[in-house]
C-alpha cells in the first residue's frame, strides 16, 4: 500500500494550492510545496517517526511538522479542512489546468462565476473571456488543449500508484492457505503508463477466503461487488481492484484473457476460430467436441495457437501477432540488463538526498556506473555555479574509492534555451563525463522553433542524451509540439540518445514515440531522473515503456559496458 509519506505530501501540496488560490502568502505557499516534495521523497516512512524525527525532514519546520503529526494521529489536518471548505470544488478543479494557474482560476470565478472545467470550456467557446486581463486567443487555445489532456486521463492512475496497491494485495493473498498462483494482470502487467483498474488473479480450488480477505483489507473503502468468481472493491484512494479466482487448471487461459489487451485478445480469438477452436478465459477448446486442448499455462495456450509466448508489454495488437508468427519477436530489454542510471540529482540543486546517500543507494542496486547530473546555471532558481559544480566533481573523485566497481560519472543536466543554446561554453562542457540536455521552459514555442531548438542541442558534440524529450507530465501537461521525425533523424545522425525518463509522472518518451524513434535508428537511455534515493527504483517503469516500444538490450545505451558507453558519449570525437 502507499506509504503515509505520499498521503501527507498530497495534503501539504493541496494546502499550498489552496493558499495560492486565495492569493495568500506566496512565501508560505512555496514553503508548503517544498515540504510536500520533501515528505514525499523522504527515505523513512513518516508513520515510524516521532515529532523530532519529523522535524529532521529537509524543508519541514516546526509548524509543518505539527501538521504532519496531526495527520498521522487523526487522519486529518483541521487548518487544511477549513481552507478546503472555503473554496468551491469546481474552482480547485480549474487550478489543475496547466496554463491557467490558481490566480487566474480565482479571477475567472470572481469576474465570470466560472466554477467548473466545463463552464470554462463553454466560456472560451462563447468568447466570454475576451477582454479579461491576461487572456488572449493563444492562451485560450492552450487552455482548451490542456482541458482535453485532463479529460482523457481522468479516472486513470499513474502506474506506480496502481503498482504499489497491486503488489501489496498480491502479497496478502499469496499468504492465504490454498493459494496456488497469484499475480496482477490487465494493463498493469502490460506496463501501460496509466491504469484504469487493477486486475488480480488467483489460482485456487476455493475462492471464498480470497474474496473475504480482499473485502476486509484495511485500505478497502467500498465493496462494488462480492461474488464467487469475481469481487471488486474500491480503495480509500478511489482505485478499483477486480479479483478473480480461477480453478488452477485454467490458470494459463485466465491469465492470457485478463492480461489483454482487448485488441490483442480479439486477434488471438480470431486465430482460434480459424483453426476451428474456441478460446475463452477457461481454455482453448476444440469447437465441435469441446475437448480442452490447453489451459494450464499461457505458454500452452499460445503454443496451441501456433505462437511463441508473447511478453505482456507487446500485447497491444501493434504487430506482435505477425512478428510472433514469423518468429521475429524482439528479445526485450529487462530491468536486469540496466547497468547504470545516467540522469540523477542531488541536493546540490533540487534533489532531496545528499550525494553520499544517492551514491550509497545506487551502489546497493548493483550498478556498474552511475551519473550524477545536477542542474546547470541557466535554471536560475537552482542556484548552480561553476564553482559548486567543480567542488562536486572533486568530492566525487574523493568518494570514488568507496564504491569499488561502481564508476561514478560526473555529469550535468543542461537546460536547452529557446534558441537551442546551453548553459556552459564548450570548454566547460568538455570537462563532464556525460551531459544530458533538456527543455524546462518555453513549452509553447511553435513547432518549427522547437524542432530547431532540439536539433541544435543534438548537434552539440557534448550532448549525449536529450532528457525527458517531450516534457509532458501525464494528466497535467501535454508536452511540446515538434516535428518528431526530424528530431529522431537528428538524434540518429548525431549519435545522441533520447531519454526514456522513468518518473511515473513523465514516462517520456512514451511507448509509441519509442517505436517510431527506433525505426529512425535512435538509441535510448532509460533513466530515473531521481531527486531522492526513493526514486531510483522508478527505472522499472521506464523499462516497461521501453518494452512497450519493442526495445532490445542493444537499443539502450545504459545496458552497455562502460567502455562502449564512453565511446557513444564522445560522439565520434576523441
Ligand atoms: P485498464 O483497466 O483500463 O487500464 O485496462 P485493462 O486492459 O486492464 O482493461 P480491463 O480491466 O477492462 O480488463 C482486463 C482485461 O480483461 C483486458 O485487458 C482484456 C480482458 N477483457 C475485458 N473485457 C473484455 C472483452 O470484452 N473482450 C475481450 N476480448 N477481452 C476483455
Ligand atoms: Ca484493468
Ligand atoms: Ca478490470
Ligand atoms: Zn529536467
UniProtKB/TrEMBL annotation:
<dbReference type="InterPro" id="IPR004013">
    <property type="entry name" value="PHP_dom"/>
</dbReference>
<dbReference type="InterPro" id="IPR010996">
    <property type="entry name" value="HHH_MUS81"/>
</dbReference>
<dbReference type="Pfam" id="PF02811">
    <property type="entry name" value="PHP"/>
</dbReference>
<feature type="domain" description="Polymerase/histidinol phosphatase N-terminal">
    <location>
        <begin position="340"/>
        <end position="418"/>
    </location>
</feature>
<keyword id="KW-0227">DNA damage</keyword>
<keyword id="KW-0488">Methylation</keyword>
<keyword id="KW-0269">Exonuclease</keyword>
<dbReference type="Pfam" id="PF14716">
    <property type="entry name" value="HHH_8"/>
</dbReference>
<keyword id="KW-0915">Sodium</keyword>
<keyword id="KW-0548">Nucleotidyltransferase</keyword>
<dbReference type="InterPro" id="IPR002054">
    <property type="entry name" value="DNA-dir_DNA_pol_X"/>
</dbReference>
<feature type="domain" description="Helix-hairpin-helix DNA-binding motif class 1">
    <location>
        <begin position="52"/>
        <end position="71"/>
    </location>
</feature>
<dbReference type="Pfam" id="PF14791">
    <property type="entry name" value="DNA_pol_B_thumb"/>
</dbReference>
<keyword id="KW-0832">Ubl conjugation</keyword>
<keyword id="KW-0540">Nuclease</keyword>
<dbReference type="InterPro" id="IPR002008">
    <property type="entry name" value="DNA_pol_X_beta-like"/>
</dbReference>
<dbReference type="InterPro" id="IPR047967">
    <property type="entry name" value="PolX_PHP"/>
</dbReference>
<dbReference type="InterPro" id="IPR003583">
    <property type="entry name" value="Hlx-hairpin-Hlx_DNA-bd_motif"/>
</dbReference>
<keyword id="KW-0234">DNA repair</keyword>
<dbReference type="InterPro" id="IPR003141">
    <property type="entry name" value="Pol/His_phosphatase_N"/>
</dbReference>
<dbReference type="InterPro" id="IPR043519">
    <property type="entry name" value="NT_sf"/>
</dbReference>
<dbReference type="InterPro" id="IPR037160">
    <property type="entry name" value="DNA_Pol_thumb_sf"/>
</dbReference>
<dbReference type="GO" id="GO:0004527">
    <property type="term" value="F:exonuclease activity"/>
</dbReference>
<dbReference type="InterPro" id="IPR050243">
    <property type="entry name" value="PHP_phosphatase"/>
</dbReference>
<dbReference type="InterPro" id="IPR027421">
    <property type="entry name" value="DNA_pol_lamdba_lyase_dom_sf"/>
</dbReference>
<dbReference type="InterPro" id="IPR029398">
    <property type="entry name" value="PolB_thumb"/>
</dbReference>
<dbReference type="InterPro" id="IPR016195">
    <property type="entry name" value="Pol/histidinol_Pase-like"/>
</dbReference>
<keyword id="KW-0239">DNA-directed DNA polymerase</keyword>
<dbReference type="InterPro" id="IPR022311">
    <property type="entry name" value="PolX-like"/>
</dbReference>
<keyword id="KW-0235">DNA replication</keyword>
<protein>
    <recommendedName>
        <fullName>DNA polymerase beta</fullName>
        <ecNumber>2.7.7.7</ecNumber>
        <ecNumber>4.2.99.18</ecNumber>
    </recommendedName>
</protein>
<feature type="domain" description="DNA-directed DNA polymerase X">
    <location>
        <begin position="3"/>
        <end position="316"/>
    </location>
</feature>
<feature type="domain" description="Helix-hairpin-helix DNA-binding motif class 1">
    <location>
        <begin position="92"/>
        <end position="111"/>
    </location>
</feature>
<keyword id="KW-0237">DNA synthesis</keyword>
<feature type="domain" description="Helix-hairpin-helix DNA-binding motif class 1">
    <location>
        <begin position="127"/>
        <end position="146"/>
    </location>
</feature>
<keyword id="KW-0378">Hydrolase</keyword>
<dbReference type="Pfam" id="PF14520">
    <property type="entry name" value="HHH_5"/>
</dbReference>
<comment type="function">
    <text>Repair polymerase that plays a key role in base-excision repair. During this process, the damaged base is excised by specific DNA glycosylases, the DNA backbone is nicked at the abasic site by an apurinic/apyrimidic (AP) endonuclease, and POLB removes 5'-deoxyribose-phosphate from the preincised AP site acting as a 5'-deoxyribose-phosphate lyase (5'-dRP lyase); through its DNA polymerase activity, it adds one nucleotide to the 3' end of the arising single-nucleotide gap.</text>
</comment>
<keyword id="KW-0808">Transferase</keyword>
Amino acid at each position: 500500500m502507499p506509504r503515509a509519506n505520499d498521503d501527507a505530501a498530497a495534503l501539504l501540496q493541496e494546502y499550498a494550492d489552496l493558499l495560492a488560490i486565495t492569493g495568500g502568502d506566496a512565501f508560505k505557499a512555496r514553503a508548503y510545496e517544498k515540504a510536500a516534495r520533501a515528505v514525499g521523497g523522504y527515505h523513512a516512512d513518516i508513520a515510524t517517526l516521532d515529532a523530532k524525527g519529523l522535524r529532521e525532514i529537509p524543508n519541514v519546520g516546526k509548524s509543518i511538522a505539527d501538521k504532519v503529526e496531526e495527520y498521522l494521529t487523526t487522519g486529518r489536518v483541521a487548518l487544511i479542512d477549513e481552507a478546503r471548505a472555503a473554496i468551491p470544488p469546481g474552482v480547485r478543479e480549474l487550478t489543475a489546468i496547466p496554463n491557467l494557474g490558481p490566480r487566474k482560476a480565482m479571477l475567472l470565478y470572481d469576474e465570470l462565476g466560472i466554477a467548473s472545467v466545463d463552464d470554462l470550456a463553454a466560456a472560451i467557446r462563447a468568447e466570454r473571456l475576451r477582454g479579461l486581463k491576461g487572456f488572449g486567443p493563444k492562451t485560450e487555445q492552450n487552455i482548451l488543449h490542456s482541458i482535453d489532456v485532463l479529460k482523457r486521463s481522468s479516472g486513470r492512475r499513474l502506474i506506480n500508484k496502481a503498482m504499489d496497491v497491486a503488489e501489496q494485495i498480491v502479497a496478502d493473498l499469496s499468504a492465504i492457505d490454498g493459494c496456488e498462483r497469484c499475480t496482477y494482470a490487465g494493463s498493469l502487467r502490460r506496463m501501460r503508463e496509466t491504469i484504469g483498474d487493477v486486475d488480480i488473479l488467483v489460482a485456487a480450488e476455493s475462492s471464498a477466503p480470497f474474496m473475504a480477505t480482499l473485502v476486509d483489507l484495511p485500505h478497502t473503502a467500498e465493496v462494488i461487488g462480492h461474488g464467487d468468481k469475481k469481487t471488486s472493491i474500491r480503495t480509500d484512494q478511489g482505485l478499483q481492484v477486480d479479483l478473480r479466482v480461477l480453478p488452477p487448471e485454467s490458470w494459463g487461459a485466465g491469465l492470457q484473457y485478463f492480461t489483454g489487451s482487448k485488441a490483442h485478445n480479439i486477434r488471438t480469438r480470431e486465430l482460434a476460430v480459424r483453426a476451428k477452436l474456441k478460446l475463452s478465459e477457461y481454455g482453448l477448446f476444440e469447437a465441435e467436441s469441446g475437448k480442452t486442448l490447453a489451459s494450464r499455462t499461457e505458454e500452452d495456450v499460445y503454443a496451441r495457437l501456433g505462437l511463441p509466448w508473447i511478453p505482456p508489454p507487446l500485447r497491444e495488437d501493434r504487430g506482435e501477432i505477425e512478428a510472433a508468427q514469423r518468429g521475429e519477436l524482439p528479445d526485450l530489454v529487462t530491468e536486469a540488463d540496466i547497468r547504470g542510471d545516467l540522469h540523477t540529482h542531488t541536493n546540490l540543486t533540487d534533489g532531496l538526498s545528499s550525494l553520499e546517500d544517492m551514491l550509497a543507494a545506487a551502489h546497493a542496486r548493483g550498478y556498474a556506473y552511475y551519473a550524477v547530473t545536477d542542474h546547470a546555471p541557466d535554471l536560475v532558481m537552482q542556484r548552480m555555479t561553476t564553482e559548486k559544480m567543480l567542488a562536486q566533481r572533486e568530492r566525487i573523485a574523493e568518494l570514488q574509492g568507496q564504491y569499488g566497481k561502481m564508476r561514478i560519472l560526473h555529469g550535468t543536466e543542461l537546460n536547452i534555451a529557446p534558441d537551442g543554446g546551453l548553459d556552459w561554453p564548450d570548454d566547460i562542457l568538455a570537462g563532464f563525463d556525460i551531459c544530458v540536455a533538456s527543455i524546462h521552459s518555453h513549452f509553447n514555442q511553435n513547432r518549427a522553433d522547437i524542432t530547431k531548438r532540439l536539433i541544435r542541442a543534438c548537434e552539440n558534440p557534448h550532448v549525449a542524451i536529450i532528457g525527458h524529450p517531450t516534457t509532458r507530465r501525464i494528466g497535467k501537461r501535454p508536452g511540446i509540439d515538434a516535428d518528431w521525425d526530424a528530431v529522431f533523424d537528428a538524434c540518429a545522425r548525431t549519435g545522441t540518445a533520447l531519454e526514456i525518463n522513468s518518473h511515473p509522472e513523465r514516462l517520456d518518451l512514451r511507448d509509441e514515440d519509442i517505436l517510431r524513434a527506433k525505426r529512425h535508428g535512435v538509441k535510448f537511455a532509460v533513466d530515473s531522473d531521481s531527486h531522492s534515493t526513493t526514486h531510483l527504483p522508478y527505472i522499472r517503469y521506464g523499462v516497461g515503456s521501453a518494452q512497450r516500444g519493442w526495445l532490445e538490450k542493444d537499443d539502450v545505451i545504459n545496458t552497455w559496458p562502460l567502455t562502449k558507453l564512453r565511446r557513444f558519449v564522445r560522439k565520434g570525437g576523441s
